[in-house]
Automatic annotation (TrEMBL):
It comes from Chitinophaga solisilvae. Residues 27-354 form the Beta-lactamase-related domain. PANTHER family: BETA-LACTAMASE-RELATED DOMAIN-CONTAINING PROTEIN (PTHR46825:SF9), D-ALANYL-D-ALANINE-CARBOXYPEPTIDASE/ENDOPEPTIDASE AMPH (PTHR46825). This is Beta-lactamase family protein.
Amino acid sequence: MKLLISLLLLSKLGTGTLPDTVAVPQVDKAVKTFMEKYNVPGVSVAVTRNGKLVYARGYGFADTAARQRVTPGSRFRIASVSKCITAVAILKLAEAGKLSADDKVFGAQALLGVRYGQLPYSGWLQEITVRQLLQHTAGAWPNNARDPMFLYPSLSADSLISRTLIEQPVLYQPGKVYAYSNFGYCLLGRIIEKVSGQSYETYVQSLLQEAGIRQMETGSNTLAERKPQEVVYYGQQQENPYIYNIARMDAHGGWIATATDLARFLIAVDGFPSRADLLSSASITQMTTPSAANPNYALGWLVNVYNNWWHAGSLPGTASEIVRAANGFTWVILCNTRTDKGFFNDLDGLMWQAVNNPQTRWPDTDLFQPVPVLTTH
């Protein structure tokens, strides 16, 4: 019976059916100003403080044509925030002794063996480690006009990997140069599959369930394939939000989630004592230690000297950000459009202003138990 009650509470978190609670004016004002400035149809926000969900609110429209409003149960593409999830999954496998961050990726005795591409492999390709993929220091496949993850949309992940290894050789000695790589995280997804014996999505979902997260899944490609509770995405400046193979992006940019589920994820890896973490303290330290090549990028997370961790995500029709701040706050912001000219700087600044404002009064309760959800009309 206790399990049934717990599952019902988690279900209500996603449905957006519970009564509204008190809004936080500083957050409401900042979000509404941002939405008006950048013509954002819909936004979902979740904030935790010392492990408690203190704010969860939807703004605007999930579907403008149907006049369907965003609720905390609305699911959004999270784009590159997916990398944080993949990094945690890799470190969990390392804790289980299934792999090491310093294992080689390609070669006869390596994690992915010689399954992909064309033999003989180059020396540099065989030097690449799991850690270097996590840190974007593999020396190849940068996020530029030739980013493999945005090419050949009809190819499966396996076929794309083989083609990329043939067409795009390693450019720099692994470990020496930082170059943000979506393809590197695609490889990490295949490593998770090889080591766990499960599909990437299945393994990660089982891990997320340990944190009480049951509504996250990898997304689909077209509007017609939109998942239950998923918002509609809106392109700006002639962008088509349904042009890419989102399902193939799984490990680097393919997840959809509610803001509240991402808040659960954050407090499950934040290193704070308020709630148990999915990872050991040693793994969290490893996860947030930057590489020599980039002092602000660790293993799947951006970090700074103030002990703040974060990641943003961006695709046509999608913008996302998760933040773990050193002062005990975490927050999630999800949008169903994006643009440029200051958009992401302003998105990043949204919650910092409210969190650092001594006049902000957060609800003195834990909305996770159970979770009253909010919708702005």
